[in-house]
Design a protein that fits this description.
The structure is a single chain. With 343 residues, the chain is an alpha/beta fold. It has two domains: 173 residues, Rossmann fold, CATH 3.40.50.970; 154 residues, Rossmann fold (3-Layer(aba) Sandwich). α2 packs across α6, α4 crosses α5 and α8 crosses α12. The longest helix is centred in the first third of the chain and has 19 residues.
């Protein structure tokens, strides 16, 4: 490792150590990122070890800070807080950062006619950009785990590209175990444990949509006796990329031992229907369809209405998936729609 890279790694390690020493609290992704940014920018241990770029900053506005950035010989960890609503804005921002750093977008917290505050092209650009590792965390605990992993991957391990986090201001989630953090970085982790039951369904949710998934799981159990296994999915795109890479490897090595992927390892090939929900366009979660060995239902704004499907709609469509599998009668779906006033 040359001197400049070693300096970058030392800066990143100081940032990681300082952030890990801070007491963690249950909070929203937005509040967590603001707390991390304040720590990196103002804590004596890290204020010279990292670049914190705020989109509203007068001294480091996005139009002028690259000149300041270019004068620095050695790279430092970069946390960029911004508010991009379109793929064009985000593309321009990523060029300014030379496609490096951890980019945190709080556009979802602003009034907008678009789901999650962004034009449909933005999440599609993220999913198709090989330089980007996009995340949509549901909680502050997920957010902190992703940022710490990003600091290590980009600035200590020296991996190329940048991390992207979509932020919302809804509190939620509790602390994560070490295994939960590891699985969250891979794209999904299990939340809670179900009781043995004849009829079960997997419910997947990302970001703020995970709250509707939680509510749907309660309705399924209370009203219909259906146990739902919950999965928080901070990155559908990472799951799909790894699954696609494993499939390509298996195709090119037909006589070798088959490679699995985190998505299939989690769902375990048990044939239980899978309902996956996102606040982004349905194409984001449709990426998983070819890698799920069970009936798969993708839900997003526009699936049943202009906004994110409610917990009642998620419940009904989970029951429909179970009915289509012959695990319950079709009349249950009709009854549920009447009960939840969906017709």
């Amino acid at each position: 490792m040359d001197a400049l890279n070693a300096h970058t790694a030392r800066c990143a390690q100081l940032c990681i150590d300082t952030l890990q020493a801070c007491p963690s609290t249950q909070s929203s992704p937005l509040y967590t990122v603001l707390t991390i940014a304040n720590t990196l920018e103002f804590n004596p241990a890290t204020r010279r070890q990292a670049w914190v770029i705020r989109g509203q900053s007068h001294s480091r506005r996005s139009g002028v800070w690259p000149t300041w950035f270019a004068r620095n010989a050695a790279e430092k960890p970069m946390l960029y807080l911004h508010r991009a609503a379109s793929s064009a804005q985000l593309c321009a921002l990523s060029r300014q950062t030379t496609q490096r750093g951890i980019l945190c977008n709080d556009i979802e917290t602003r009034p907008s006619s678009w789901p999650k505050g962004t034009q449909p092209s933005l999440p599609l650009w993220l999913a198709s950009n090989p330089h980007c590792m996009p995340y949509d965390p549901a909680s502050g605990a997920e957010t902190q785990a992703i940022i710490l992993a990003g600091l290590r991957a980009l600035y200590i391990d020296g991996k190329p590209g940048f991390y992207y986090l979509a932020l919302h201001d809804q509190d939620g989630g509790s602390g994560l175990t070490a295994q939960d953090r590891e699985d969250a970085l891979k794209g999904m982790y299990r939340v809670g444990r179900t009781q043995p039951c004849l009829v079960t369904v997997h419910l997947l949710g990302a970001g703020r949509a995970f709250k509707q998934v939680l509510d749907a799981a309660r309705l399924l159990k209370k009203d219909w006796g259906v146990e739902a296994q919950l999965w928080s999915c901070p990155s559908y795109t990472r799951l799909a990329r790894e699954a696609g890479a494993a499939e390509r490897w298996n195709r090119l090595h037909p006589t070798a031992t088959r490679r699995s992927c985190h998505l299939r390892d989690c769902l375990a090939g048990d044939g239980v229907p899978v309902v996956a929900v996102t606040g982004y366009p349905q194409a984001i979660v449709d990426q998983l369809a070819g890698y799920v060995d069970a009936r798969f239902v993708a839900l997003a704004p526009g699936s049943v209405g202009p906004s994110l499907p409610s917990a009642c709609w998620i419940t009904v469509l989970a029951l429909k998936a179970l009915a289509d599998e012959g695990r319950m009668g079709a009349d249950v779906v009709e009854t549920a729609m009447q009960q939840y006033l969906l017709k």
